[in-house]
Design goal:
It holds the Pfam family DUF3632. It is a single chain. This protein has 349 residues and is an all-alpha fold. It has helices spanning 2-22, 28-45, 65-78, 93-106, 130-137, 149-152, 155-161, 172-196, 204-216, 241-264, 302-323, 332-348, and strands spanning 114-117, 120-123.
């Protein structure tokens, strides 16, 4: 019964998603009304549901609401991968429509739409479960499923990951890689705009994670671009140049859309730089291999400067590869240059 209920809500979001995609323009307030009608109907259908896993010491969750919002955000984030362009996120209408939808939710009167989720009362203004959904999606392009190391090392997959197109290939590893590339860059653009356009400062940390993965973990001796299937055992997929280039593009996307906010940030998320940080809270702002400073953004802007230095290294690496006939149409240099321009503009404000 539970599996059928989840499939039902997925089917409803499929219909809504297709309808939204077909429209040349979308009114975000009308979208909010549509979502609320769907939610009301779904919650009424599940009003008598019981939760065997519920802690009897907590307030009972509003039946159906957690499932509804989890699948709403899941479908929203998945739809980011259906854009035509796989690198120029300025043209991703799903990103812009999602931002408009969130802004419409934020303008609703406080206290008018409140549900109990995970034992706590949650107002729609707080965008229920969005943070959890984004965190789940932001684990990595192939965190849950994707090509194996041998498949990722194929030149066709490498080119696809790096934005050079599929080369006419349509087998599963290539098509999955193209989809994941679009979803990943769309996700980074969306989260960056959470910060820069919707004022959701709690997502700043995701920008640091993008820069950590893409720039601070960029190898000091980057590998040559793969032009033939490697003999012997393949390298780890995450160590291949196509994957590393995609991570750089993710960081560059953040810097293109939220450079001023990242530049102005001086927050610390960890014990290195914050003596009052709770010992059991981890260090989410920690650095990658190249950053040994504070767990966050230092006021001296040394971490920011490191990011610029690595972007220049990436450009030099790509120029060398291209001069030797490798990496045709890879997008990493273009993305890095745009990021540097955005960073310079942020510094000049």
């Amino acid at each position: 019964m539970e599996d059928q209920a989840m499939q039902d809500i997925k089917d409803r979001f499929d219909i809504l998603s297709t309808d939204m995609k077909s429209r040349p323009t979308v009114n975000p307030h009308e979208t909010v009304d549509t979502i609320f009608k769907m939610l009301e109907g779904y919650a009424n259908e599940h009003a008598l549901d019981t939760d065997a896993s519920r802690n009897t010491g907590t307030k009972r969750d509003t039946p159906g609401v957690e499932t509804f919002f989890w699948h709403l955000w899941g479908r929203t984030l998945s739809d980011l991968g259906r854009c035509e362009s796989d690198h120029d996120q300025e043209t991703n209408e799903d990103v812009e429509r999602t931002i408009d939808f969130l802004k419409a939710l934020q303008t609703l009167p406080p206290g008018k739409h409140v549900w109990t989720i995970w034992g706590e009362d949650v107002d729609v203004n707080s965008l229920p479960l969005l943070g959890a959904g984004v965190r789940d999606a932001n684990n990595g392009p192939f965190y849950y499923t994707g090509p194996n190391d041998e498949e990722i090392a194929r030149p066709e997959v490498q080119n696809t990951l790096a934005g050079a197109g599929t080369g006419g290939c349509s087998d599963e590893p290539v098509t999955i890689s193209l989809r994941r590339r679009k979803e990943w860059l769309g996700l980074q653009a969306l989260i960056a705009k959470f910060l820069s356009k919707a004022g959701l400062k709690e997502y700043t940390l995701h920008g640091i994670w993008a820069a950590r993965d893409g720039l601070e973990d960029w190898p000091t001796d980057p590998p040559r671009i793969i032009t033939a299937q490697p003999s012997g055992g393949p390298p780890s997929g995450e160590d291949t140049p196509g994957y590393r280039a995609l991570m750089v593009e993710g960081a560059a996307t953040w810097l293109r859309f939220a450079a001023p906010q990242l530049y102005e940030c001086s927050e610390i998320w960890g014990p290195d730089g914050n003596s009052e940080w709770k010992r059991n809270a981890g260090a989410p702002g920690r650095g990658g291999a190249r950053w040994k400073g504070v767990d966050g953004m230092d006021p001296e802007k040394k971490r920011w400067t490191l990011w610029k230095d690595v972007l220049r290294e990436v450009i030099a690496w790509y120029d060398k590869e291209a001069s030797e006939g490798r990496g045709k149409n890879w997008k990493v240099k273009e993305s890095a240059l745009k990021a540097l321009d955005a960073m310079a503009a942020a510094e000049g404000k």
